Amino acid sequence: MRLKAARDFCQRFGTGMHAGVDMLRLLDSESKIGPPRQREAIADLRAEAADGSTLADGMRKRPQFFPPLLRSMTNVGETTGTLERTLFKLAEYYDQQLTLRNNFQRAIAWPAIQFVIGVGVLSLVIWIMGIMNSGGRQMADILGLGLTGTSGVLKFWGILLLFFAAVAAAIVAFQKNVGGIQNAIPLLYKIPGIGSSLQTITLSRFTWTLSLALETGLDPIRAIRLALDSTDSDFYRSGADDAEAAIRGGATLTGALEATSVFPEEFLTQVSVAELSGTDAESISHVARDYDVRAKSAMRVIAGFATGTIWLLVAGFLIFFIIQIVMMIAGAYQDALQGI
């Protein structure tokens, strides 16, 4: 289930429940919305609900479609009788995540277009060099890469494809924690600017999920485990058992988070101070709102970094191209002068 679909589902379902609409009618309506896979999943929920199954049980049977947070929070909402409020909170959470993603995509859209244009211009130059002749001879290789004509364009695209495939493979390997690579996350966070921004966004997601879980009545052990899982990082998930042991030993929320050894001192201090002002749910809610603001600033930093990287690539292509042309012209003049 995509982020936007999850947000809209929670918003519509929560609104329907607030209006007193029967759950079966809501599910029947939802089964007519969205792509085929979503309609099929909701239709199955409707059929099982008609047989007496809960919404959470139906979602639990389809983990490949319904996200973990939606499954867990729906279960909590149904158990505590706060499903309507829980769905509205989930809609707010998904909307926040969607806003961050959309802001990032908008920020890098124009630089990405510039990069595509730059690749197109270079491809055109390579192709022209293969079809134009000068004095019966093929034009000189202006780029100095040995790429000319249609075959040169295809080779050029192949090189770019391999580069981006390698980048994508590295990202997937990191997400799946291949070879325990996520253990290097503390080193990643030490990169000036970009590292702290990545950490802030991760902590924002963690605090939002933890705040949501605690506010809906989930016990601290399950709430922390769910929040750690929401980071999509095995580095953070590794602290779940330590947090559980700390809570069972009588530790506060701050003590449990400190026991995980994955959170920065500044974050723990902020949670500790907020914890003095009220319950766990209230305290982490204050921290979540603060990190929401920080995450938006951090996303702008990351978008700026991505934008700068793309611009550097485009500028690098153009500068290399200009230098090659200047060197070719200078070489031609030098050859001409030597013949005099």
**Gyration radius over CA:** 27 Å
Helix content: over 70%
Number of DSSP strand runs: 2
Which percent band covers the strand fraction?
Answer: under 5%
Give, in order, the helices and strands.
Answer: HHHHHHEEHHHHHHHHH
Cα separation of the termini: 74 Å
What is the strand arrangement across the widest sheet?
1-2
User: Structural class, judged by helices and strands?
Assistant: mainly alpha
Q: Largest sheet, if any?
A: 2 strands, antiparallel
What overall form do the CA principal axes indicate? elongated
Number of domains: 2
InterPro entries: GspF/PilC (IPR003004), T2SS_GspF_dom (IPR018076), T2SS_GspF_sf (IPR042094)
Keywords: Cell membrane, Membrane, Transmembrane, Transmembrane helix
Transmembrane segments: 108-132, 152-174, 301-333
Domain Type II secretion system protein GspF: 9-129, 209-327
Layout of helices and strands:
Blueprint: H1 3-18, H2 23-30, H3 36-50, H4 55-60, H5 68-80, H6 83-131, E1 133-134, E2 137-138, H7 149-175, H8 185-188, H9 194-215, H10 220-230, H11 234-237, H12 240-248, H13 253-259, H14 265-275, H15 280-338
Helix pairs in contact: 1-2, 1-6, 2-3, 5-6, 6-7, 6-9, 6-15, 9-10, 9-15, 10-12, 12-13, 13-14, 14-15
Subcellular location: Cell membrane
Protein name: Type II secretion system protein F
Main location: membrane
Description:
The chain contains 15 helices and 2 strands. It has a two-stranded antiparallel sheet with strand order 1-2. Helix 6 (83-131) runs parallel beside helix 15, helix 9 runs antiparallel to helix 10 and helix 9 runs antiparallel to helix 15. The chain has helices at 3-18, 23-30, 36-50, 55-60, 68-80, 83-131, 149-175, 185-188, 194-215, 220-230, 234-237, 240-248, 253-259, 265-275, 280-338; strands spanning 133-134, 137-138. With 340 residues, the chain is mainly alpha-helical. The model has no long low-confidence stretch (mean pLDDT 83). It folds into 2 domains: 3-66, no CATH class; 84-340, no CATH class. Residues 9-129, 209-327 form the Type II secretion system protein GspF domain.
